[in-house]
Structures are given as structure tokens and as C-alpha cells.
Amino acid sequence: MKRGLIALSPLLVFITFYLLTSILVHDFYKIPITVAFMVSSIYAIAIFSGKGLKQRIDLFSRGAATEQMMLMIWIFVLAGAFAHSAKAMGCIDATVNLTLALLPPQMILAGMFLAACFVSISIGTSVGTIAALVPIAAGVASETHTDLSLMTAIIVGGSFFGDNLSFISDTTIMATQTQGCRLSDKFRVNVFFVFPAALIVLICYLFMGNQTEAPQHTAQVEWVKVIPYLVVLFTAVFGMNVMAVLTLGIMLTGLIGLLTGSIDIFGWFGSMGEGILSMGELIIVTMMAGGMLELIRQQGGIDFIIRLLTRHVSSKRGAELSIAFLVSLVNVCTANNTVAILTVGNISKQIGDRFGVDNRRCASILDTFSCTVQGVLPYGAQLLIASGLAALSPISIIPYLYYPLVLGFVSLIAILLRYPRRYS
């Protein structure tokens, strides 16, 4: 017990140092999140027992530079370069003008949410959806005088619709593989959780949209400058790798910018450089979080949580609640919903089989609750990249994340009421 709590203490140090201090001083900008992670990472290395200092640093570095972490960092780099080069050549302004021209003011919030849902279910990645749509959302927010944190949260929330439901989402694939069921079967169960939550949030946005101000003037749409975003969205929808999609988008911004005279070659290079540098804090946080969480795992912190939560299960409803809480808690510790599902997938299967939980329902619970938690983590990749692109604090976005919170509430009620009955 004591060893398990010590293993988890770096996470408690981070929460105490960053969240509680920020709440006490009523300012989440007082303590940079990079400093909070640096302090908790140094603490994690210091308390690690049984190995020399060099070995501890090597373990930290291994966690910070896993294949998955490096892939994420490359996506951040390309997303920053694309966002800034698109802005420099006028792509974002043109896309914002197109959005304002097509949607009446009262439909803008709901329209942005539906766009995020459609893109995310098509490409199966929340990070890719956020990278593509947050710059547009920021521009729309500026033109309509809508709160930027709210508009960014709409995109983040919608991005988890597809992350949870898409057939090509890594969380969907991982959940079905660990529980031994088909993608289509898991989808049929998952819609009973996801669709009611999405409908509730959509209705909320429709009512909130009544107060959205119409832009005082809408500029003429420069259609040629919209092409990079259209190509990015369509190629992503048709399954192209997200890194290839962003690279293609970067090339198109340069080509169209040069042809239209919106930007010269050095301006294009400079905008890409600024975009990459703007992701510096995000990249640093990602690597330090990965290193710290690897040390927690090596010390047995994750295993301790699993053992603690599964020793008092005694019913089917209790089994489902344990699986939901287990994947949620591990997700808090790993800040990665795919890794959380992979970590607890086998033990969730054992719990489900022991108490007669349908494999399809078990896979849906794993995926849904991991996405719910991932959607509100201020140090998760999705909120970090969204806040980086919108130039906001991750904490300022959280109060407006209606969809992940409603999804979690609906899913919890479904477990308690044994809904839907056919899978219970």
C-alpha cells in the first residue's frame, strides 16, 4: 500500500503544485505548466528506488521518447507549421469568411460541433481534427465576438465523438481487440451512449447560438485560398495518414500563397518556423509527462491502482463500474486513452467474464470512459494542442467542455440503469 502511494506521488505533486496553487491564487497563468511538470519530473526521478541516478534518467528518457510520443511530437510540429503558414497566406481568413457566409449566426456553434463530429468520425483521430479545425474556430470566434475558450472547446468535444465511435480510431480498435469482439458489434452498443450525449449537447449549442452576434461585415470569399483546408479535410476523411495530410497542407499553403502573391518564399519559411516554435511548450510538456508516467509505471503505480480497485467487485453492475473507474483512473495517470485501454484491457476482460458482462458492452465502457477523461485532462495531448493553436491556457477551455462531461454522465446512468437491456 505504502509503496503504491509513493509510486503515484509524482502525479500528486503535479496536481498539488499546478492545479491547487493556481486555484488558490485565482490565476492559471501564474505557474507555467512546463515548470509544474519539471518539478514533478525531478521529484519522480529523486524518489525512484533500486536504481542509480543514470538508470533513472535513462528510464525517464525512454518514457519521454517512445515511438508513440515521437509520433505525437511530429504531428505537433507539422500542425504548428501548417496553422501558421495557412494564416500567413490568408487561408484561415478565407475559410472563416466562407463559414460565416454559409451559416446563419444562430447555427454557428452547432455547425462547428457537427463539423468536428463529422471530421473526427471520418478520420478517427481527435488530434488530427483539432489541428485542422481549431484555427478556423478561432477565426470564427473573433468575427462573431464569441468566447474563444468556448469555440475551442466545441471543436475539442466534437473531436472525441469520432475518437470514441470511428471504426478506424485507435481506441476503438484497442478496446475491441482486448475484449474479443468485432468493431461493428461494439459500434452498435456504443451508439446508445454516444448519440444521446451528442444530441443533448447539440441542442444546447442551438439554444446558445441564439445569442451569437452576427459579424458586422462579411468579406468576399477568396475560394482559391480555401483549397488547403478543403484538401486537408477531404484527404483526412478518405484515410490518408495525418502526417501526410498536414505535409500536403503545408505544401499547398506555400504554392497557393506564392501564386496569389499573398506571401513570398521567405515569408512562407518564416511562418512555418514561427508555427514550429509555437509548439515548443507543448512538445516539452508531452515529453516530460511521458517520462514521469513511465517512472510511475516502473515503480508499480499503475498495477497498484488496478489491484486496489478490483478486489471488492461483487456484481455485474459493480464490475462495469469498476471497469469504468479503472480505465478512467489509469487514463489520468497515463494521459493517453489508447495506452489506458491497453493497460487495463486484459484485466477488464477477466472482470467482465467473471461477472457475465457482455464483451461488446465492456469494450464500449472502456472506450467511452477513456475518451471522457482524456477530453478534460489539461495535460492531455488534445487540450494541449488545442490551447497551443488557440493561444489559450488548457484550464480556460475545461469549463466549456460540455460533450465529454455529458458523455460521461450519460454512460454512468446507462450502467446504473442497465441500459440498453439487450446488452445487459
Short structural description:
The protein has helices spanning 2-25, 33-47, 53-64, 67-88, 91-102, 108-123, 126-144, 148-165, 170-179, 183-208, 227-237, 242-260, 265-278, 280-298, 301-310, 316-334, 337-355, 359-374, 381-390, 394-397, 402-416. It is an all-alpha fold.
Describe it.
The chain is mainly α and 424 residues long. It contains 21 helices and no strands. It has helices at 2-25, 33-47, 53-64, 67-88, 91-102, 108-123, 126-144, 148-165, 170-179, 183-208, 227-237, 242-260, 265-278, 280-298, 301-310, 316-334, 337-355, 359-374, 381-390, 394-397, 402-416. The chain is globular.
Beta-strand content bin: under 5%
Number of DSSP E strands:
0
| Series of secondary-structure elements, N-terminal to C-terminal | HHHHHHHHHHHHHHHHHHHHH
How many separate helices?
A: 21
In terms of per-residue confidence, which ranges show pLDDT below 50 for 5 or more consecutive residues?
A: none
Largest sheet: none
Over the alpha carbons, how many angstroms does the gyration radius reach? 22 Å
The N- and C-terminal alpha carbons lie at a distance of: 34 Å
Task: Indicate the topology.
Layout: H1 2-25, H2 33-47, H3 53-64, H4 67-88, H5 91-102, H6 108-123, H7 126-144, H8 148-165, H9 170-179, H10 183-208, H11 227-237, H12 242-260, H13 265-278, H14 280-298, H15 301-310, H16 316-334, H17 337-355, H18 359-374, H19 381-390, H20 394-397, H21 402-416
Helix pairs in contact: 1-2, 1-14, 1-15, 2-14, 3-14, 4-7, 4-12, 4-13, 4-14, 5-7, 6-7, 6-8, 6-10, 7-8, 7-19, 8-10, 8-19, 9-17, 9-18, 10-18, 10-21, 11-12, 15-16, 16-17, 16-18, 17-18, 18-21
